[in-house]
Design a protein that fits this description.
The protein is mostly beta strands and 445 residues long. The protein has helices at 3-27, 31-41, 164-169, 256-259; strands at 45-50, 56-61, 76-80, 97-101, 104-106, 115-116, 143-144, 156-160, 199-210, 212-218, 231-239, 246-254, 265-271, 289-290, 301-302, 313-320, 327-331, 335-340, 352-362, 389-397, 402-404, 410-412, 420-426, 430-436. The longest helix is centred in the first third of the chain and has 25 residues, at 3-27. It holds the Pfam family Neprosin.
Length: 445
């Protein structure tokens, strides 16, 4: 073989190796890039707590949380607003403080809570329930696993620490903690029905002018077939469409590809441009301002419901502060979590046009078959109380800042042989429905 041919072959080999190396670097980011991104996500903690599920919960000073990396929140200062209680020896107690950015006060609490009116559809004195699809009356409380090993000090918030292996499970650093290629199905985006990119739904919703919603979610631990699939129960508050779609989302999910395990976890999500470049899960990007020092977003919820056994629930209330315009989130009756600043959004800065509640799974059609990932408990809604997953006491916040039972509920369950929904009204639970299914079965190949 001539020297010219040998030189040419050597050039080809070198070029191929260079291309392979370049491709590897684009798929697997360098350790330096991963470390830099981790430093952006993981703030210096005041205290760290090791959770029994393997999570590390960092107690981060409230003013150092990821939200304040956002351009609109960068120039903040802490202003203490104290109420003085004089005790012996002239000791006083400061019971509250606020944050300030760009001369705007960041409220530690909302200026108004939604009003509650007695709903004629809910009979709190009802003693008997004969409906097949009525949720059981006795529900048990939940907690987060990390609570068993400690709690975060006042003035800090708990943040689930992001690990290197979490980052490497993502397709890229940019996509970590984000929904990829989602075409949200809803009444305002029905034309997207054929391009859901593997996302399948069973949900109920209503259209109008809304300023929030409240609902109680039955908690389960559904089986997920492959790590990049997930299963969840959540609410959606939305307005806009396509690239101007604004959403606020919250609920529970099982998502091995994001968290590295199959635990049931609380989550939030938001976007202001149809999931293209804005928003993320939990505190994985700038945006949501957390004020609570007891709930770790993305943290494991325990325990979860059992078939024909104890049922566990989580109540979520999200509403728009009539004065400041921010969207606040609360768990249960008194666990105020924090808020999405109104300035994060375009059309949602005013009001919502659609509110929806239900289940969602990702179906990757592994080996050419529909996924076996469960939605809810994995039982169809027709199985009713004790077996199927439910959402009850569904309410919306109207223009008078009042919680009311929604009217004109619609449902959407395009793959009803895989996942279904049954809506009803119950004198103990108001507007409520059961949803879910096992995925692949003889009628869902």
């Amino acid at each position: 073989m001539t020297k010219a041919k040998l030189s040419f072959l050597h050039f080809v080999v070198v070029l191929m190796v260079a291309q392979i190396c370049h491709g590897s670097r684009s798929r697997f980011p360098s350790s330096i890039k991963v470390h830099k991104h981790l430093n952006l996500l993981n703030k210096a903690p005041v205290k760290s707590i090791e959770s029994p599920d393997g999570d590390t919960i960092d107690c981060v000073h409230i003013a150092h949380q990821p939200a304040f990396d956002h351009p609109i929140l960068k120039n903040h200062t802490i202003i203490k607003v104290c109420m003085f209680f004089f005790l012996p020896l002239h000791v006083f107690v400061c019971i509250n403080y606020n944050l300030k950015y760009n001369n705007k006060l960041i409220q530690m609490r909302p200026s108004y809570y939604p009003d509650w009116i007695k709903d004629e559809n809910i009979n709190t004195n009802a003693s008997k329930d004969t409906s097949l699809t009525s949720p059981p009356k006795k529900h048990k409380s939940i907690t987060q696993l990390w609570h068993s090993n400690g709690k975060c000090p006042k003035g800090t918030i708990p943040i689930r620490r992001t690990k290197k292996e979490d980052m490497l499970r993502a397709s890229s650093l940019k996509s970590y903690g984000r929904k990829n290629g989602v075409a949200r199905r809803s009444s305002i985006d029905s034309e997207l029905a054929s391009v859901n990119n593997g996302h399948e739904y069973a949900f109920a919703g209503t259209d109008g002018v809304f300023y929030g919603t409240k609902a109680t979610f039955n908690l389960w631990n559904p089986k997920v077939q492959v790590p990049d699939e997930f299963s969840l129960g959540q609410l959606w508050i939305t307005r806009g469409s396509d690239s101007d779609l604004n959403t606020i989302e919250a609920g529970w999910q099982v998502y091995p590809g994001l968290y590295g395990d199959s635990n049931t976890r609380i989550f939030i999500y938001w976007t202001s441009d149809g999931y293209h470049t804005t928003g993320c899960y939990n505190l994985g990007c700038t945006g949501f301002v957390q004020t609570n020092n007891d709930i770790a977003l993305g943290g494991t919820l325990s325990p979860t419901s059992q078939v024909d056994g104890s049922q566990y629930e989580m109540t979520i209330l999200i509403w728009k502060d009539p004065n400041e315009g921010d969207w606040w989130m609360q768990l249960g009756d008194d666990e105020l979590i924090g808020y999405w600043p109104a300035s994060l959004f375009t059309c949602l800065s005013e009001s919502a046009s659609t509110v929806e509640w239900g289940g969602e799974v990702v179906n990757l059609n592994t080996n050419g078959h529909h996924t076996t990932t469960d939605m809810g408990s994995g039982y169809f809604p027709q199985k009713g109380a004790g077996k199927a997953c439910y959402i009850r006491n569904i309410q919306i916040v109207d223009e008078s800042n009042t919680l009311r039972t929604p009217e004109g509920l619609y449902t959407d369950h395009p793959e009803q042989n895989c996942y279904d929904i049954v809506v009803g009204m119950n004198d103990n639970s108001g507007s409520q429905f059961f949803f879910g299914g096992p995925g692949r079965n003889q009628n869902c190949p």
